[in-house]
Every structure is written in C-alpha cells, then in structure tokens.
Design brief:
This protein is mostly helical and 167 residues long. Helix content is 53%, strand content 10%. The chain contains 6 helices and 6 strands; from the N terminus they run E-H-E-E-E-E-E-H-H-H-H-H. Helix 2 runs parallel beside helix 4. It starts with 7 loop residues before the first strand and ends with a helix.
C-alpha cells in the first residue's frame, strides 16, 4: 500500500516552463494530494543511486558522484603506498570506475564543464595509480593503463545500449 506520509512529487520540465508555472520557487500552482493529504513538492530526489532534478540537468548527480569519486581516490592514494601496481589498478576498477560509469550514458547532454571535472578526476586517478607527478601528461597514462577516457566511456555505454536494444 502507498505510504502517503512518505510520498513526494516532482514535476519535470525545462527551466522556462517551471518558471512559467511558478514551480521553481517552492510555491507551485499545482497542488497534488491523496486523500486530502498534500504531497510535498521536491526539486530533486535520489532514486536507485541516481540524483534526479526537475530539469534533468544531471548537475546534482555529477556533483554527488564527484564527492564519492574523491573519497574513493583517497583510499587509492593511501593503498598505493603498500600494494603492488596490479592490485591498485584492480582497486580503481572496482572502487572508482563504477562511479564514473553509473548513469554516464545520459551525461553527454550535461555540458562540457561537468565532464571536464570528471576527466580531471580520472586524470588524477591515473597519476595516483602510476605514481606520477602532478604535471605529467595524463592521456598517455590513461592509455597505458588501458582505461577509457570519460568521453570514450560515455560513447561506449551509449553504443552498448543501442546494441542491446537492437538485439
């Protein structure tokens, strides 16, 4: 059964449409209710590990992912002092990379600045894993490690989704 006390609502739309209907300032024209209980109107929500906002801009999700990736890279940086390269590479694949891949097929529409932030994090991870200095060019490191760049990862995930939908 539906728990009305925990039920919330969110209206999706472009920023101009949300402003037109006063849905961007917390005082909406639309009041949804179930059995005379008003539903709370929210601007974003975490659902199945994905942060969804009312404009589907993915800023909040990527910001959330950047925090998780940064914490995971802290563990990598600590572990590289004590573990061989192969194990640190496996740690990247199991601890850091899933945060890059989670829902990345929709990130292509989020803008270059957010993707650049993610790419900088991956560059830093490559320098951590290979024990390189901060001014070392990261593209050769990523290639040597056999990783995909963020843009390549997005393209791969989209191509995989298209292939699976066709077959």
């Amino acid at each position: 059964s539906l728990n009305v006390a925990k039920t919330q609502s969110m209206i999706l739309g472009s920023s101009s449409n949300l402003k037109k209907h006063h849905l961007d300032n917390g005082d909406p024209e639309i009041n949804l209710h179930i059995n005379e209980d008003n539903l709370d109107m929210i601007g974003s929500n975490k659902y199945l590990g994905v942060q969804i906002d009312s404009e589907l801009k993915w800023r909040e999700h990527i910001t959330f992912a950047i925090g998780k990736i940064s914490r995971a890279m802290g563990m990598l940086k600590y572990a590289k002092k004590y573990l061989p390269l192969e194990i640190v590479k496996n740690m990247y694949t199991s601890i850091v990379e899933p945060h890059f891949r989670n829902c990345c097929s929709v990130w292509g529409c989020c803008g270059e600045t957010l993707l650049d932030k993610l790419q900088k994090l991956q560059n830093r991870a490559a320098r951590i894993v290979t024990n390189s200095s901060y001014d070392t060019s990261s593209l050769p490191l990523i290639g040597r490690l056999g990783w995909l760049t963020i843009k390549e990862m997005i393209e791969f995930e989209i191509a995989t989704m298209v292939y699976k939908s066709l077959h």
